[in-house]
Specification:
471 residues; alpha+beta; Immunoglobulin-like; 3 domains; 12-stranded mixed beta sheet; 3-stranded antiparallel beta sheet; 11 helices; 22 strands
Length: 471
């Protein structure tokens, strides 16, 4: 190969390129050497770790890097060497986020520790106010239950007496300011409902309203109240206030006792609407049609089909036949006209103007399966009793107080019953009760009704600032 002679310019260019390559290689080597030398300090750790705690917490911060200095903040900012220098445990009495780094000469600063603490206020005897970062409006009080209490609370035979004991303890801490107590067990539905046998229970403790078909009475002293408490509602799983049966259990304070009602097997069904056109939280349908008169050749026995939806099949049967005799789908429907009347939120005149009639079916029977099963909305009845609002007033007297002077806002204390393991759903329960007591136009859950929406914006629940009711 014949070598070409380099001119001066070409030589200078070659030297420049070589110099650049050498410099780049040198910088890369130096960077790698620096990286190897600057080992990173160990990330600090906090003890106890972040979480939800009741009462004052003493937090220690440590790092595995010897002689490292820890800097921290408690105001949410990122710590630097100008921040507080850790020298002794940090005392937390309220919700706090600790951020910390470890620093040592000759080492890279550690990664950032972020530890968030929710601090419930200990009220003693197992009670606590939920940390203000979770419950900003002070809406619920927690109560720590024992394993024995948990067993009792998911037993149909034992829950009543257990709740009564807890209620008396509630009034050792709180003034007699509440119309209702909501007891919410902080457990999944799958953990409790099958054992308990119900999604919720209303225990009526006093009644001073006339014209409901129930006596006026007061049993408040046995529950610790001085006379204000109307009922205690128990929900054996944490999401019952959101999904139901919260609206249903509230309705039991007024309904359904205004006339006899009957189940599909014709058993008296007082307290629910049974086989009727009430179409409410406590059962009943909205639409009904006669399928066969003198059914099976039996004089006076009529086969009906009922539904809550008017849609029909080509043969005229209801497409979505069926209804609940004691409930109709949790918080997915509002109160019916008769329920609102009994609650004092709709007047007798409004029902008259709407040509209201409450149809009660009795002498009932049904098929468990087959084409004309009760599951498809079919039932047999031998008697239909139809009540106007004036008929009901004749039976029970007018509602006193009437809709003008009736109570429409009710104060609620929500008691979260939690075991000693973890407070798994405190935040969700707080959100649920705030939504349930919110405004009628709150569309957070478009297919669900809160109390105000279910009462057409007439009724309301006051749930905030319970700390102001502490003794």
């Amino acid at each position: 190969m014949k070598l070409q002679k380099l001119n001066k310019n070409t030589a200078f260019l070659a030297i420049a390129i070589f110099s650049l390559i050498f410099t780049a290689i040198s910088l890369t080597v130096c960077d790698n050497l620096n990286t190897a030398v600057l080992e990173r300090a160990s990330t600090p750790t906090a003890n106890p770790p972040e979480g939800i705690y009741t009462g004052t917490q003493i937090v220690t911060i440590t790092t595995a890097t010897e002689e490292a200095v820890i800097y921290y903040t408690i105001d949410g900012s990122t710590p630097t060497t100008s921040s507080l220098q850790y020298s002794s445990p940090i005392t937390l009495t309220s919700a706090t986020t600790i951020k910390a780094i470890a620093v040592k000469n000759g080492m890279a600063n550690s990664n950032l520790l972020t530890a968030t603490y929710s601090i419930n206020i200990d009220l003693g005897d197992g009670f606590f106010l939920v940390s203000d970062d979770i419950d900003t409006a002070s809406t619920v009080v927690g109560f720590t239950i024992t394993d024995t209490q948990l067993t009792n609370l998911i037993s149909w035979n034992d829950f009543y007496s257990e709740l009564q004991i807890i209620s008396n303890h509630v009034y050792e801490k709180f003034n007699d300011d509440f119309d209702y107590l909501f007891f919410v067990l902080d457990k999944l539905q799958s953990e409790t409902v099958n054992y308990f046998g119900a999604y919720g229970v209303n225990i009526t403790i006093s009644n001073n309203v006339q014209g409901l078909g129930m006596n006026t009475f007061s049993n408040t002293s046995s529950w610790g109240s001085g006379g204000k408490l109307k009922s205690a509602m128990y929900f054996p799983y944490y999401n019952a206030i959101l999904n139901g049966p919260a609206l249903h259990e509230l309705a039991h304070n007024w309904a359904a006792y205004i006339c006899p009602t009957y189940a599909p097997d014709n058993i008296r069904y007082d307290g629910h609407w049974g086989v009727s056109n009430a179409d409410g939280q406590l059962g009943g349908f909205k639409y009904v049609k006669v399928v066969e008169q003198n059914s099976g050749g039996i004089l006076g026995k009529t086969l009906y089909q009922a539904s809550r939806s008017p849609e029909t099949n080509p043969d005229g049967s209801f497409k979505n036949g069926g209804f609940g005799v004691n409930a109709n789908g949790g918080n997915s429907l509002p109160y019916s006209d008769i329920e609102l009347y009994l609650m004092g939120m709709k007047s007798a005149q409004e029902l008259r103007n709407a040509n209201f009639r409450l149809d009660i079916y009795s002498g009932n029977d049904y098929n468990y399966d087959g084409d004309y099963s009760f599951g498809n909305g079919y039932f047999y009845s031998r008697q239909l009793t139809s009540y106007t609002i004036d008929d009901l007033i004749t039976l029970n007297g007018p509602r006193i107080p009437d809709t003008v002077s009736s109570q429409k806002q009710f104060k609620v204390l929500t008691v979260v019953l939690t075991d000693t393991s973890t407070n798994n759903h405190l935040s969700q329960i707080v959100q649920n009760i705030r939504w349930f007591s919110g405004l009628a136009n709150d569309n957070t859950y478009p297919y669900l009704y809160n109390f105000s929406k279910a009462t057409n914006g007439i009724g309301s629940l006051a749930i905030s600032d319970i700390k102001n009711s502490l003794k």
